[in-house]
Amino acid sequence: MNPVTYDAIKLTLGVLATVGLYTVLYRENKFYRFWEHVFLGLAAGWASVTLWTETLKENWWDAMLGKSVEQGVSTGEPGYWIYAVMLPLGVLGYFVYSKKHSWIAKIPIGIILGLWSGQQIQIWWQTYGPQMKASMLPVVPTTWESLTRPAMNGLTPEQMASVTANIYPSQAIGNILAIITVICVLTYFLFSFELKNKVVSSMSLTGRYLLMIGFGAIFGSTVMMRFSLLIDRMYFITIEWFDALKLLIG
Amino acid sequence: MAQVQNEKTLGEKLLSIPRGVLFFILVLATAIPLRCKVTIPNNPAENSANLYRILMSIPEGSTVLVQSDWTNSTRGESRGQFDALLRILMRRNIKFAVLSVGDPQAPQVAKDVVDAINRERAEKGERQYRRWEDWLSLGLFPNAEGTGNGIALNMSNTFATKEESDASGMKRKVMLSPVFQGVESVADIAAYIIVTGTKSSQIAIERLNNKVTMLALVTGVMGPETLTYYASGQLKGMSAGLKGVYDLETMMESGLNVTGSPNQVPAVPGEYPGFPGQTNLAKGTQYILTLHSAIFLLIAAVVIGNIGVILSRKKGQS
Amino acid sequence: MQYQDTGWIGIAFTLMLVFFVLFNIRRAGKNNDIYIRKIPGLNAIDEAVGRATEMGRPVLMVPGLGELNAISVQALRIFSYVARTAVKFSNPIRLCCSQAPVFAVAQEIIRDVYQQEGVPEKFDDETVQFLSDRQFAFAAAVSGKILREKTAATFFMGEFFAESLIFAETANAIGAIQVASSTENTQTPFFIAACDYVLIGEEFYAASAYLTREPVLVGSLIGQDWSKIAILITIIFGFMMESVQRGQMTGMEKQPDGSYTPIAEQRLKKANETFMHNVFNPDPPKPLEITRPQKPAEEGAGGGE
Known about the structure:
The complex is a heterotrimer. Chain A has seven helices and no strands. Chain A has helices at residues 3-22, 30-65, 86-91, 106-135, 157-165, 169-188, 198-249. The longest helix of chain A has 52 residues, at 198-249. Chain A is extended, with a radius of gyration of 30 Å. In chain B, α11 (241-254) packs antiparallel against α12. Chain B starts with a helix and ends with a helix. Chain C is of the alpha/beta class. In chain C, the strands form two sheets. Chain C has a six-stranded parallel sheet with strand order 3-2-1-4-5-6, sandwiched between helices. Chain C has a two-stranded antiparallel sheet with strand order 7-8. Mean pLDDT of chain C is 86; it is low at 299-305. Chains in contact: A-B, A-C, B-C. Chains A and C meet through α2, α4, α5, α6 and α7 of A and α2, α5, α6, α8 and α9 of C.
């Protein structure tokens, strides 16, 4: 098949799938259901193939068997038979289908959960240490020469160093806000204390309001992303597909 | 008289605009501006400017790792980011290895885009980026956490099972490729760059941030959460969403902090030139006007809805 | 050996948090009456299931897109409570999973609930289902299920990403009562906009501890509270120290390798010269060294080797 026809068929199927899934906005219908199942089938098929090609074959099967030397193709590699131990461990997971022995499936699941939990402890400091440090912001201005931090363009290295070492009043105000937010929001998420103290309960309430402001900002950013996805679909239909059809018709 | 009572007030009418009409207007608002060629003025965000600064400061010939976890699901934003990133890397002769930890489709999507950018370079008579010598596709790593740990502790061991064909067609271990020449651990990598629409960026940052310079190009959804890591210095630069793509493209077009360039970010020291005369303005520039039109429509809908609610409440009170 | 070489404070701080959790789990095992603040959204669970019973329609639950980890397991614990309430009222359940290991655990947990309530025969293939591990294929399948089965109550709890709004909006369109909670901050606003009740952030973990009163969960929750207080104290101490030190003058210059050399003129301390900076950054970053050719020798050559 010539590439122009192939492209046109490929993109037309893509457009049908896109429109098919969008029809749910009107109401649930057979056309939507058809494409929903095509989508599910394709995803399942792709996932099973890549599970073998990208994960099991390369990382386990080939590593276990090794490779013999083939002139011009492979320089050979020893096999690591110890990898065979993984198979029974993985197969234990299939006991979930046995009503009598389903408990055996909990062994690999327990190992997965244990590994995950161990890793969370291992990375805790690396994740939150720098963030705790970043929350320790200076709140006292060191200069009143300028209200805001001056631009760095055209400054000598010494002047730049002086600008970065100083804390300007606008920075101090921003830092105070950041620290209040961190403290209040953390207070909101304390569950094992009764918030009887007025100061603590009002900090908790402030924390709730500050969270809502934060969620509002996140909402805005996320809405933009949703629009970007729609815009890209529109580009796909109104430009990529139209162009492919134009090429086909000549 | 009964007919009069059933008649809807203006407030009720505003609140009961049929969904179909709203969707139709949305389709028009997103389809028509795509055809318009209007340039929107831009002021790059500091995080995007730092991303560009670092990409432009990486020594030529060095190697970066690109963790590409996006697929066509987030093509609207991630494709533009990946395109811009590859263009910068290729123009600056920086070698790269692409790995994916999230989605089985991601390695293929990344390969397709590298091929597309290579075709673009071929049309302009520029040097082709060749697999094995200039770039590598390391494929999918099934567990993000384990892979991150592996790269942090022993990178060559983590990539030990991966092979690619060299120039003669013989399958060889990727660590023997020119891309990884002189690279023994992740500390020898100039930057670890993540392009993603999911949390995989955070998993990598948590494990690698104290070992290598980390950069991220994320979708608008992941932007606010990833910004925390940028603010704490765990990420040295990042681009978020379509605005991030547009930032990168405008900086590629006219440079950053260069005299005469509209892209001036005072908080970022130094001047970084662009690539004038080359393909810089692409997906981000194409979509940004449409994004404005869609957001304008959203704001209008929110205002109309609120007016409707206020008018209906007034009627209820009276 | 100096602090710079070990950076022991990170390990010590982490061990302290681990101790807080383990100590409180032990404490909760001995004492069942430890106080936990009730979260308003919890009442909504019974209300939602009650509504589904009145309407005679199924209750739908999704434990997020995350792999098998503490988050999805917590979601399943909450769902076991929801399922128990639903089974008592003979309400059908639809629990949709996107990860095979989560599906296996969910099947176990929900089957147990049916057995404990004395109706094991009502647990069928439709009750817990694996739909797809691809994000948007899963979103399409769950939306289809919500629309076709006209679920009366929906529970979305766990790790959600871009598909969150698709779920919430679809369920909203058919008028289902929705209770949601995501550990992903970016998705919480969408749930707040489209759902009836939302558990914000950590409330998700508190909910499972409150509902089950299991010592491990209650103890973990209290241990986490202690940890938050420790973090709060550290941050308050830290910002005070920074505020004082950034205003101080110094006659020493910090070098990239972490050492100090005297300078002629005194100047303000830089951000990387304070006590807290040194505590949190014991190991200075090493400069990148590239020894190979930096550009292809000729046009078309790859460089290296």
